[in-house]
Amino acid sequence: MVRKRIVVSGQVQGVGFRPFVYKLACKLHLGGWVKNSSLGVEIEVQGEKERVDLFCNDLRTKLPPLAKILDLKIEDKPLQEETSFQILFSESGQGHQVLISPDIAICADCLADIFDPKNRRYLYSFTNCTNCGPRYTITKSIPYDRKYTSMACFEMCEQCQKEYNDPLDRRFHAQPNCCPECGPQVWLTDKEGKQLALGIEAISKVADLLLSGKIVALKGLGGFHLACIAGKDDVVLRLRQRKKRPHKALAVMVPGLKEARQIALLSKQEEQLLVSSSRPIVIVLKRTNTNLSQFLAPDTKTIGLMLPYTPLHYILFKFLQEQIQCPVLVMTSGNASSEPICLGNREALKRLGNIADFFLFHNRDILIRCDDSVLAWNQGLNAPLFLRRARGYVPGPIALPQKGPVVLGVGAHLKNTICLSKDDQGFISQYIGTLSNLETYDFFEQTIDHLKKILKVSPEAVVCDLHPDYLSTKFAQEQNLPVIQLQHHLAHLYAVLAENKVKEPVLGWALDGTGLGLDNTIWGGELFWLDPVSLEHKRLVSFEPVSLPGGEQAILEPWRIGLGVLFTLKEDLDFPWPMRMPSPQQINVIQTMLNQKINSPLCSSLGRIFDAVSSLLGLVHTISYEGQAAIVLEKIQQCSTVKPYAWKVEKKDDLFWIKTSFWFEQIIADIKKNTSPAIISRKFHLSVQQVLLELIIKQAQTRGIKKLAFSGGVMQNLTLATNLPLEIKNRGFIPVFPRQLPPNDSSISVGQVSYGQLFLTKK
User: Fold this and answer.
1) What CATH number does the domain containing 451 carry?
2) What is the pTM of this model?
3) Is 424 exposed, middle or buried, given 0-12, 13-18 or 19+ CB atoms closer than 10 A?
4) pLDDT for 721-734, tens place per residue?
């Protein structure tokens, strides 16, 4: 006979872990107890050694669906007179090793409940159990108990309380447990807030309104969605006009995989992502000749597709399918352009009143805003490519390569996230957005406060970007903490090294739009040698800079960059260029700015080079969302057998320059020969791929380095993201690419945190 004490830390509270332990112990006829505590889950188990060993093995290998173990400690204890096994009350205490589960899609068992007319939860929108439902977005603090969630105000009825107290019931200690008798309710209003219907009738009426061409704001898990029928051009255009989102793709939701296959060409891996419990938006290839509006995603050949993940979604589709065979709904974030997603009922009426015709509300408070996650499948890595990491994944941590002090990373200006470290875990927040208005900045501050609260940590230092005008940088400098500044592109690389647990010198490309360089110029196409142990680095290669006439305005108006290229190469502006030529007055202004070097900073960004090519080809002159010009350029490329453009490199001082002007000379020659823009785009993509690959491999061979890293927003380009890792592996090197984090600026905060830990430990 033996007795063991086991402490399990990780995602083990509120996920059915204690009943799992209880059933396992009872099955093996063991005595002891299990309880939640600030350490995670504590267990003492006693019985025959063979049975206790089997218990410990099953504890690791047969987990409930949502449970994740980060650490498991076992120690011997003296035998006690004990034959039964019981679940003890939760304990609070000092320290804290508990993870809150992300919000998870409704499970198959609960789905069966809501579609069983004999079940007391028939068509009930808030049905859940320990294996599914809301978690992070309804949680105020730790421990994860009902009184610390937004369900605290709903007292369970006798039947729900019985389920909650029964260790053999799948709703045992399911903190959001409820039913129509005791739980939240939904209701429908007009845009003035006048109630029109309640409960099931409200959802049925929403289906009718959507089919009649109305736009409805739906309160969900992490905020509001704006929904409309995806097959009507006039409705989709009306939504775009009201939301001030003229071109950026709109995500759609369909009832299931059968309908998804009717509108998209899906791989097995994409289908697995779609049906996963995280239920992200998955970027997939559109089918042609569908009944979808042409205005859903005009700039791409793809569409953002997701399946229902709440009971309300499934109930709504039930009513829609009673009237049409294959309903497809636009399901986009409930916000105006550049603002955070709406959270509360009154806030939604105020901020979405000019967008939505009707509102479907409920009275379960959302405590934390959390957008839908967005992924694509990267065939080159055989792994997901995150574009936005939020609902379904947050607040799950990223395992860091080292343990270290608690550090706060405040992220970048665009696509902001924040990150807090705890031991060797980096807890990255949900997507926050661009810190350009008060609402988003408030969201940024709230997220920092909430993450500190649920992790029960206090940062010892804060890491920020070099850019002095970023609101995140200003926030860092206002804290009563040591401030560490890390250059933007180095942060990109530290992020990808952190998630891949790289602890040795690497070579890495950081490729994005813009970031302030160490020499106070604008970078965005840099090859570094970087050593995460010594924290030393060296910039080896950069793209020859292009001018940005008008500075920030040139990012919004790529024609300015294209015109700058034509001026630099002394091209005849009277030639019938595909790009839309500005007025004579604008041409004179740009020429003066370039000649006198007024507000025309030089920029080595690969992203801006993509913009310039797109503009020269007449594709995009003014952008309405980040990356639009490059997205359209990638879309049009004709994947025929063509040779890439030639490229040149020259050395300036201690740095190699990729001759951007040499590329443009060849592109302009092709334009003058009336070469198809699709061919030009393909040749350009192949050339970029080739130069990135050849230069990093040449440096790797010289320096004896095997691991080659890539990060930055340009790595959202699927042509590069797919082909580069394959080529790297074919050449005998190891690709280090983002797998758990987006390559864009959302990963910056993790890089800052990992660097901050290393910096403080080294110091």
Assistant:
1) 3.30.420.360
2) 0.94
3) middle
4) 999 999 999 999 99
